Structures are given as structure tokens and as C-alpha cells.
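User: Continuing from earlier, I have the next pair ready.

Assistant: Great, send them over.

User: Here they are, in order.

Assistant: Folding the first of the pair now:
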Amino acid sequence: MQLPPSDEALFPDLEPPTPSPSTPVCPGAGVRLDVLVALPAHSPLSMAPLPYLHDTALPPGTLVRVPLGAREVLGIVWDEAADMPGTEVAPEAIRPVRTALTDLPPLNAHWRQLIAFTGRYYQRSPGEVALSALPPQLRDLDAVQLGRRLRKLQATATAQPPDTPASVPPPLTPQQQQALQALETSGEGAGGQAPRPCLLFGSTGSGKTEVYLHAVARALAATPQAQVLVLVPEINLTPQLQARFADRFPQERIAALHSGLTPAQRLQHWLAAHTGVARIVLGTRMAVLASIPHLQLVVVDEEHDPSYKQQEGARYSARDLAIYRAHRQQAQVLLGSATPSLESWYQSRPAEGDEPAGRYLRLAMPERIGAAPLPRVRLVDMAHAPRGAVFSPLLLEAIGTRAARGEQTLVLLNRRGYAPVLHCPDCGWKSECPHCSAYRVFHKADRTLRCHHCGYTERVPRACPVCGNLDIRTLGQGTERLEESLAEHLQALRRADGAPLAIARIDADTTRHAGALEAQLARVHSGDVDVLVGTQMIAKGHDFRRVTLVAALNPDGALFSSDFRAPERLFALLMQAGGRAGRDAALVRPDTPAELWVQTQFPTHPLFAALRAHDYPAFAARQLEERHDAGLPPYSHQALVRAESRSQEAAQGFLRTAAEACGELAAATGVYCYPAVPMTPQRVANQERAQMLLESPNRAALQHFLHHFSQMLHAHRDRAILRWAIDVDPLAI
């Protein structure tokens, strides 16, 4: 989402709501309150607060426990009556509030407005968004239990701060100083306007994290109550970043918000952020909806990462909401990446000719810390390699040479498991999932065939289930097989101390248990691992000081994908992976610089030419030109409508019927509705999936159309449709 100069111009209803006074229903009956609760997404009441009675008026944002049917649920006293008209209920049918959690400070107007916007923009129930943003344990606590936790939190807040001195920050490079000066200037604002968003375009290893730390220190020093929010794309990046912040700010309480916390931990950290006890909040995408009343700075690290886009429920973009939230709260927002999203890159464009500059300020840091050069890119043409070859002989030689010198190698293959398919060469049987239109992946460690879409798992058959052939073979490579192949090829090689090479693997299978990822990363950092095999989770944000060689295997699938964003994701992945190499200049020898090896069948592709030159601007310019010619984002705006049913015909028919009902509105607003087509994969867990793409050059027109289109979906839904959802600004088509 690129916010317009004035978001009110596109969304007049986004003005901060004026709190309406609570009014008695009748004398002596109590005060009517509008309460937001989480209702099913497709309920006709889901978009509006429900009326309840209470003895006294409660401030908006107060948490209450209210009856809903036979249940008692958590709700929020709301003040959006003008924005979300309350539900019409007969006065005698209005039920009383059971409990008011008045010990907890109310959720402030900024937070409530953020929730209201998120619900409207992403076409979801505001109650669903609001309650999903609260810690789950909060829904089960009564007033006494909550009061006990608040008193404990306050006691820790007033305790003596630790005596640990803050670490001494390293001296800033000239480019870091320039970036911080520009950031300070942009934060001053003009005429009461919100600070201008900043895009920190820094190469891998250029010291972006140090800029974040200095920006946070400046924000905390400016105001005694100031809070900052730092977003990271993955849970596994949170511990190392939290350690750096704790080392730099030992006197400050740090709250971490991500799905890896226990319910009790998540409640504790959320309360610390909500009450202002924690002035630094670190988290993944969920943290963007946390209650942070005194927010002054938002940092979005690796802002290009697709992990910032929620894929279930309210399909929001945490990066886009961070920009919107900072704009509303007059806070500064800093986006950082070595490979920015093309939307952010376009919005940070300089003025050129008659075209005005973008709304973001671009801060460039092209040089690495310590004068360490960027890795040299070597393209290996696998078209001339022997059939079935996984590694080129030169790559294996390079791995052995570096291991003998005590250097590490990172091997990237973005596919876990042993092999993506098992097949029978006699009858052609393949390991298809009986519930999905996809293949089950062979996992050798536990001898299972596992569907990565629905989770269906069974033991590997001893023979072909169709013809009985005992010679069942594998097709393709996964990280598990890659680890095994490397061990076979490198078994004769030795480290400098004469020990055999140590090979480790990091992917979703090896990091399922608590603490497994931290333990494996510790082995890598200590030098106990010579070759690290993994998926994209090891290519983001990690500071591997001993890695001097990165090898990317089989990246060609994205070059000719039907998804127009696939080249952007591939380029970012390869640039980020290559950035793990040569970060410590002291370990890089002049005769053998750090390298990124890419094994490909298409070494002459323009994407690899830009990669060899580490020229992201050239790559971005080419992609933006193609998207401009095709009318694709950021030059247009899209939404995907998805439907699931027991039959593909019903799913597609449901989408077509709704589109036909809105045909006149689509023509009037300039929204183009593409035909409904099957999704990829078409069937998941025995449910047929279809989608329809909606596109418009005008965001306001698309939002207006989606509002009415969602009403048509409600009106035309029948029992054949299991569920449907609208994905605004989708990342994959």
C-alpha cells in the first residue's frame, strides 16, 4: 500500500471518530454501550458493534466481558457509531455487561482507529481484527486475575534498574552519519504534518542495524514516555536483535511479540507495551497491531520480505500498516532493506523531469562496514553438466578449499525434505496426496511421505502400491538429500585440524522443537559447522562472520513463473543469501574473495546480469518498466477473491455470480474483474479452490467496489460454499 499525500482524500471515513456520549436506553435501565466482539467472518452482524448495558458509562477502549449466545466473550467498548452503525436491537433484548476490566488502561483512540482502518481496508470484521491483536490469555482472565498481573508488572517497573552499563557503540561511518542526519531532518515534519517515511537502502553488511540503534536511542531520549516498535520478518531473527538492543539499552524494558511465545509470556509482554513499561517493542508482523500508546518511531527491517503479509484471516501487510500507523500517530517510520520491494522503491524515487519525487525519502548506504567487498558472483552453467548432477566439480573443490582454511560455506536450496516426489518407473505411479492436487514429499529421516499443504502423512510403501515394483525411485532434490549428498562428496576432505568436515542442516524440519534453531545457529557462529545447508530461513538477516562462500542451487523455477513477482523474490533471495558471505573483512583473502555461486541453466538471463553487478537499481528499473507497460503494481491496485467448495464448478460459479451482480458498478468505477480460475494448488484437504483477480488503476475505486462486492458475496453464498476471503494487495497470484 502506498498512502496518498492525504489518506483522507481517498477514504473520507477515516477521519478520527468523534466519541459519542453513551445514552441511557430508558430511565433506570442503565447505559447503552457499543461493544466490539469477534464474530464469524461471514456473519451479517460482523461489521458492527453490538449493544450492551452497564450501570455506568465506560470510556471507549475499555475491555469488558459480555454474553454472546450461550458464551461469555471478551469485547471492547467502541466509539465508532458514526463510522460503523450499531446493530438495531430491541431495548428489552439488550443484555448487560458481565464484567468491566477497568484496572487495565483503555485502548486509546489511535489504536482503535488503526483497527477500524484495518478492518475496512482488508475487508474483515473489525472485531476479528481487534480481538486477534490481543493476547489470547487476556480473553480468559477475570478482573481479579488481571489486577494481580498488573500489580506484578508495576512492581517490576518501579524496581531499581540494572547496573549493567550500556555497550559502547562503534564509531559511525560517514554514510551512517549521513543517513542519521537525513533521518533527523525528515522527522521534523512541516506544518504539523507527519514525518516523511524513509527507506534505508543499504547493502548487506553496511551497518543498517547500527542506524536502527542510533535512531531508537534518539527517539527514546527525545521524550520520557516515548516508545519504539521494531519489526522483523521472522521469529528466528528476534533473539539476536533483542540481544543487541538489550546490550545497547540495559536500562530499558524490552517487550517481544511473536507467535513463538507462550500465552503467559505474550500476555506479559503485551501488558508491558500497553502500559508503557516497555519502551522498546520487538516483534514479527503481529506486533504492528499491538497497543503502543506513546509510539514515536517504527523500524521495519527487511521491509521487502513476504513474511510481513498475513496469509490467514485478515490478510494485512504489516509493513503497510506500519506506514499508516506512523502517519496517524505522527511517528517516524524507517524501512530498511538491501533489496527493497518495488513498491517502496517506486515511492522513494527522486524527481525526474516532469515526474515528481516519491513520498518516501531514500537513504543510501552502498558500502560495507570495514571496507569488506561484496561477494563476487560466479554463474555455473548447468546445461553442460552431466545429467542428474547436483554439484559442479569446481563448487565441491571450492567448498573443500575454504573449509581447509577454517572458512564456512552456506548452501541454499529452497525446498525441504529428501525428495519432492517418489515414483515408480514401471507403471508411472507418483506420491500424490489423496486430499490435495499436489505430491507428498519424501522425508527419509522418518521414512514418511508428507503433504506440505494438508499435513497428510503415511509411511513410505515397501513397493509400488499400483504394480508392486520394489524399485521405487526419487525425483528431485530437497535439503535432506542435499545434506546426504554433500557428506558423500566431501567425506575425504579434512579441516585444518585434520577432523572431517562438519555438515549441518537448518530448515523447518530440523527446527521444530523449542530451542533447536538457537542451538544450531550457536554451532555455526562458534565455527563447529563447516558447511550449512538450508532453505531461505538462513538467508535473511543472519550475521555469519565465518561464511565466505554461498552456493545457490536450482533457482531457475522463478525465472519463468506465471507470478509477476517471482523475479523480484528470486533476486532478493539471491542478493540476501550472497550478503551472508564475506561480512568479516579480516577473513577474506585477497586471492580468494568471498563468492556467491549460482548454478543455473540460464546464465545469460538479465536477472543474473544485474546480480553479478550487485546492481539492484538496474534490476528494479527494468522490472518497473515491464510492470508499467503491463499495468501491474505499483501502477495499479489489485485484490484477489478466493472461494472454497466441494466442487470447482460451485466455487467458480459463486465468484462469477457475485461479479455479474456488480457488473454495472465495476464498469462505472473502472474495476476490471478477471475470469474465475482454479488456484494453485487447485485442491487442498479435499476442498476445491478458485480465485478471481480484481484490478483498478485507482485505489479508492477498488476499495469502493470491494465494499459492495463483499455484500454480494454475503448475499449469494449458499451451502455449497465452505468459505471465501478477500485478499487486498496480494503478493502472489
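And the other member of the pair:
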Amino acid sequence: MRSRANNLWLVIDKMDFPVPLSLEQLQVMPKGALEELKKSFDGVPEETLPVYSRGLKGLVYERLGLVSEANKILLSLYHYHGEGWTLWMIVNEFRNTYGRLLPNSRPKILTNVNKNRISLSLMANADTISFIAGSKLGRLNASVVSYNLRKDSFLDILGQLPAWWKPDYVLIFITEVHSLPTGLEKSPYPVVGLPGDPWKFYKAFCDVKFFDAVMPAVECLCPAYQSIGNVKTLYTSNSGIQGYIPWQFANASPVHQKKEYDVVITGTLSNHFYRKRGQYVWRLLKLANRYKVFAGRMPTLEGGFDVMKQAKIVIHCASTQGGVNLRPFEAVACGALLLHDEGDRSIEEFFEADKEVVLFNEENFEQKIDYYLHHDAEREQIIQRATVKNRTYGNIVALMKNTLDKIQQSRITVTLRSACALTDDMKLNALGISSFYAKDYHLAAFRFSEAIKMNEWNGKYYNNLAVCLMVLAFTAKQRNPMIESVLLLVNKKHTPTILSVFNLLSYYRFIQFNPEMFLEISDKMAQDLQNNRVEIPAFVGDELFFYLDNPGDSMPESHVFLLELESLLNAFPDQGSQYQEGFLKTVLWRILEYKGDYYEKSGDDSRAIREYGAALEICPRNEFVLERVGKLCTVAGRFEEAKLYLTKLLQLSPFHENAHLWLSRIEWDKGEKGKIKERISCMLHVTGLKNLEQFNRIMDKVI
């Protein structure tokens, strides 16, 4: 058999081999030696063989041409999880190599994932071939097809499959981070999309055009997907998309190990992502005089694991959009008791309340912590039950089986997919938008350029190309004069839309700052929006707007802008009047924020405060605007006004560094030193305090 893992060693136990036997040695072993090796296995009860020895036995049988016997032995390896998962890829390749000679007892799945937890759990339940983006089209081995996203279509991918290998389903996992291949709508086999991220609805509106069915990871996503388009929506609790434990935890700390922390809560404190997490962290830190507490965001995923391994209790709050992410499973794998906010009951799809997870609310938060820190036996029993269930690879396999069973029971068939009704240029535009939201900006720009070649009269294609070029230019900190030309073409030659004008404004704001043009456009747009003189287009799936969604970039408020729009689309996926009204208001506060920022940088603080205040009337949760206007009011001596803004900011984000800094300056002037001491004591428990030195210098006399 070809293309097996070179670094995998199959250790032969209870046999007379002085050294481990590698796959390479097995491949070149002469037939006589293989037959002798087979004799060594004969007479040894198969159930007594260690998993790697059993794998070796199957491969020896394969080399000797005993394919049916090898198949029986190798398939049994899927019952050995954890220590044997590295063999699963080998078994899958065997099945795909010799499948025409074997009973067709397992489903065949063509999928877009490879060498990760999803593909491995798929292999335990089905014969799997993966298609992955690469430089050229071709078979990498019996289980992987590589293709070029620019040149090759989905039909080209199918052409690389063995003639006898016919997939039962095409499964597109984690759709929000993957670009779709062209021609997917022509698939002769049912196509199912399985998204996992609740924040990627704009991409979903494009992707579902190419699917026969969609299967969200959590139930709270289903209503939105059901409203998106003419596509079947499936759901099963305990799906194989969520609810897994990565193999990084195979050697996680045992639950009986001494714990360094009583309570741990880790992760971002962004109020836009997690509306309640900051408040709970603040309350937790007030218990720091009684318990050893860790609260903060670790710089690396591994660092977070290390902290949770040392915790008796890990606290988790669901995101604003709802649904279960990976943190609960990571906490359990690290041997901690999981305390989960009961505001989102999705967690009960994976963990049984009071038996495998403890739920808390605003009234009993401290009481639950106290109770389980003083009742060690109960805490350890819950940990043990959750750990046994979720730290095994058997659980991964069972969860994926639930997913496949649901798909098969739903009898999904090839439908007239929405994309089939689109012209070729419209298909490319939709695929370009899908690639854009997958952050493959170069591919997106290529697809928009190709769409323009097919139809040069569609202004939306030019707009979308310009947005891609803007993102690339901003990221590379380079100017691209082509962008302005394209945007002006859209807004002069074609019919301008609210998005094309907004993108032109963003260009003059972020890419090539032009104060005159910026003010002219922003003033007109603000007036038009305030006076309802703007018609909102049916733009989802057709037109892009400029944003950068990385919270770590130099424009983090753009992230908030996207989150607000995603929340709107989640709440009103039919894009009716409520969505349209919300969309216009969101664009308006973004423009007002732009204007406030301009006037602040120009030194006109009074006008900046006025524009920021107008933005907050529309979006009062915008922590970036609250910070800026609070600072400006403090500097201007408008202390009472400043306190209102900064206090509101701390209600949303209790650990906002600058809010504490500016409030401390006000309290210092008023002689309110006790408040400053309390603030500093809590802040010092949070890692990554950027302004700590500055804070200490200002508060030196107090401390």
C-alpha cells in the first residue's frame, strides 16, 4: 500500500523481535519473511494483541494478498480509540485502495477536511476521501485529492476518484472557513454543508446556494438557516462538529492531581462577544481574598490548557449568539469541574446538568462556587463522569455517527440548487463573496475579476473587487491607486448603492485619507440616512462592505461593526423591515463614529464629542466610542458627563483598562481614594494589563 505515514512505528509485543518494526521495513520485507511473520501471529488470540500489533497483523495480511482477512482485522482498529487513532488513516487508505474487492458495507463520504479530528471520526464511520486546496489537480494518495481553487472545478475533483468509488454524500464541514470549489452546484451527489460558527451568516447566505441541505452545529442556529433559502435544514443533538476533545488532551492532567487554582476563567472579555463574562469575572475577583483565582486571557491556546489543568473549577459563559464552543470540552478534558452560565442551555446537549456540568445564574454564582469548593467528593464525582464521557476518542466517533445517521435518515437527495439558476458570472460573484468571508482575499479578488470579464456592466462586481483590494492594501500598508478608480467607476458609471458609497467613504478614511472627500461624503450619507433618503438593497449574497474582523488589528471597532450586522442577520434572516431599519442605523453610527474620530484627531474635541454622542444614541453598547467620548469629556473637565460614559463602559466591560484609568483621574481629583484601591486590586488579577506602569505612576501615592 502507498503513501503511509513515514514516522509511524508499529511495536510488536509478545513476539521475538529485538527492535520495533517500521512501515518502511514492512514494505520491503520479502514474501518469505512476511509469511514467517504471519505464522508468529497465527495461534495468538486476536483479542490479546495490542492495538499496534493488531494493525501490523492486518498490514502483513494485506502484503500477502489476503485482502478480505486484512479488512476484517483492520476494521477492528476503529474500536480502539486514543492509542490507536494514528492507524485510522492507514485503515481508511486500505479501504479506498481495495474497496472494489470488499463488501460495500460502509457509506462513502467525499469531504473537504483532512488530518483533523473531523476527518478521523469520519473514517471510523465511513470510507472517506478528502479534497484539499493545493497547487495542482491530482491524487496525493488513495484518500486525498488535491486541486487548484482557481483552475479546477468540482467536476475535476470527481474525475480524480476511482471509477468504482461513488460517494453517498459530499460533506462540507466548517463551511465558514473554507472556500467552495467552482461547479459544486453540478455535483451528481447530495451536498450537505455543516457550519460550526454562529457568527458567519453573511458567508452562509452565499454557501447555501450550493447545498442540498445544511446541518448547523447547534440548535440555536437552525431558525436563521431555515430562513436563508430553499435548502433543507437538519439538526441532531450531540453532532460531530462540536462536542469533541482534541487529542492534545490525551495526556491531560489526571483529575486527582493537586490543583494550584480554585477557580479559573479564561478567554476574551469583549462585551460584544460575551455580554456577561466581564461581569462574572469582576464578581469572581471579589472572592480572591478567599480563594486562589485566575482570570485573564492567555497568549496561546497551550497556555490556556496549562492553566485549566491546574484548576478545580473552570467557569464558562456562552457567546452573545449562543451555542456551544470548544471551551467547555477543553475544561472537562483538563480535569476541572465545568460551571456554565445557564442563560444558554445548549450545553445540556452535551453534558447532563448536575451530573456532568453545574449550571449557575446571576443569583447563585458565588454560592455555587462556595459549595463545590467545600464539597470535594461531589465535585470529583461530577468531574469523573464528564471526563470519562468526553476524554475518550470513542466519544468523538459516537458523535460523528449521530451526524451521519441523521443525514442518512433524512434521505437527502440532489435538488435543484439555487446556484443552478444563476448565470456563470453570478456564480463566480457568490463564490468570491464566500472566499472573502473565508479570508481568502486573493482568491476572492480573482473570482470577482473573472466575473467582470463575463459581465462588465454589473457594478456590484466592481464594488466587491474594490473591497478585496482595500483589505489587501490595508493589511500590507500599501496604497493601490486602482482602488479609487474602481470605486469611482461604481459610483459614477453604475448605479451607486449604500454599500458602494460607504466603501468609497471607508477608502478615503483608511486607505488614502482625503479630508475634503471624506467630509463631503460622510456628511451627505449621514443626512440621507437620518432623513430616510436611502434605499437598502437586497445585498446579502451580492455585495460586500469594507471591514476588518481581526480584533487585534489597528481598527478593532470594525470588528464591532461586523458583529452588529451579523447579530441583525441572525435575528432577522428574512431581511424584512426590522433588518433593514437596523442595518441603516448600524451604517449610520459607523459613519458618525468615523466623523467623531476625524474631529478628535483634528483637535476639535467639542464636535468629536457631539458626533460620538450621536453614534451612542444608536449603538449604546459600543465600547470603543464610550472610551473615546469618556476620555474627551475628562480632558475637557466635563467630569460628570465623563463619569456617565465611563461607568456605562465598565458595566459592559468591567476590565476596560482606559476606563479605569480615566475614572481614577476623576476620583483622584475628588479625593475618592478608596474606590481607586478597589479598582486596582481587581485589575491586578487580570493578565495583560497594558497600562499597568502608567496606572501605577498615577496612583503611586494611593498605593
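Worth noting for the second one:
The chain is about 50% helix and 10% strand. The domain at 247-391 is CATH 3.40.50.2000 (Rossmann fold).
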